[in-house]
Amino acid sequence: MSNDQSLTPLKMLLFSFHATNTIILSFLPLYLEYKGLDGTEIGWVLAVGPLAAIIAQPFWGYMSDKYKTVKNILLICIAGLLVSSVVFFQMNGLIAILLAGFVFYFFTSPIGGLGDSLGQRRADELRISFGSIRTWGSIGFAVSSLIVGQVLTTIGIQYMIWPYLLFGTIALIVTFRLTDVNVESDPVQLSDIQRLIRNKPFMLFLLFMMFITMTHRASDSFIGLYIAQLGGNEGLVGVAWFVGVASEALVFALAGRWYRKYHTLIFVIFAGIVYSLRWFLYAAADDPMYIIALQFLHGITFGVFYLAALDYVTRLIPSLLQSTGHLMFYAVFFGISGIIGSLLGGALIDSYGGGALYAVLGCSAAAGALFLTVYHTLTTRRQVRQM
């Protein structure tokens, strides 16, 4: 079997999973508003996802490393996604939505991280760019945001479960065809995880990174409501996500060309600075078309930041603990950052509006870029001294 053929199920998994992810990210806040929840309550529901992720991602990552399989863990999680989503979308009332949401996110949150961890390892095995695999996730995200946005504008936001189940079923089918990873080592023990927690550069990097990733997650949660505040509809929200993710797909696809020229931390810091500028520009917008036009910056911010940060983390952790380390990175990027972003964002957009929310995000991203610059300077000096 050629490399291209062996990677086709993995690319299709990333395509279909990120297509489901789009539907939740782009339209769940509008769906919850339709169900009668206010901005702060929507913030609580969106914070349940990252809370579940903090528990679920290290748990499923540990199980993956322990039993040396990514494929079987993915099968369990995607089956759980399909069953729990049906329950989640039936719920009414904040408490019922929160409880069903926790179970739903417990299964869905690790899928992206496990898919990317498998993609990173397959790319290393085949000596190709990880971006060339990961770009299929972005394409799925982009296609779904455009099509589903138009469909929901026509049929109504209350029917968003149907496109969700369609893409989820495709993800389950292609996972059966995946090529699993081969790890030649003893099964991971719980004591090994302590090695990661005691890895000071790894933990410091995750902490400083959070000042930037929190802003990314807050924008993910509330950009739909902000576009609605500025006078846009579901179709425009879909177009905004399409523009953003199309630029992200381009950055991932071309990663092999731009990516190796400087230290990966330089790219992380650069993306942090652009994040800050991006949020200040969003804060100043008074028309939804400005947000859509500025969404091309999503590729330059998230695309560059995510690829470079994942690569940096991969170098910091031993190969035995790759799944666990990647999912810890994921738990901070999408978990802890998501809780802070959702709760803070919900309160800010409720009390002061979207413009104020984005101004605060701009300040936080600038602080993160500054901390990472200091971190990079100090680690580089230490390495020079040790040589």
UniProtKB/TrEMBL annotation:
Gene3D superfamilies noted in UniProt: MFS general substrate transporter like domains (1.20.1250.20)
PANTHER family the UniProt entry points to: 3-PHENYLPROPIONIC ACID TRANSPORTER-RELATED (PTHR23522:SF10), BLL5896 PROTEIN (PTHR23522)
Chief location bin: membrane
Subcellular location: Cell inner membrane
Record-given protein name: MFS transporter
Entry membrane topology: Multi-pass membrane protein
Alphabetized UniProt keyword annotations: Cell inner membrane, Cell membrane, Membrane, Transmembrane, Transmembrane helix, Transport
Ranges annotated as spanning the membrane: 12-30, 42-60, 72-89, 95-115, 136-155, 161-180, 201-218, 238-255, 262-282, 288-307, 327-349, 355-378
InterPro entries: HcaT-like (IPR026032), MFS_assoc_dom (IPR024989), MFS_trans_sf (IPR036259)
Signal peptide: none
Lineage: Bacteria, Bacillati, Bacillota, Bacilli, Bacillales
Domain Major facilitator superfamily associated: 8-358
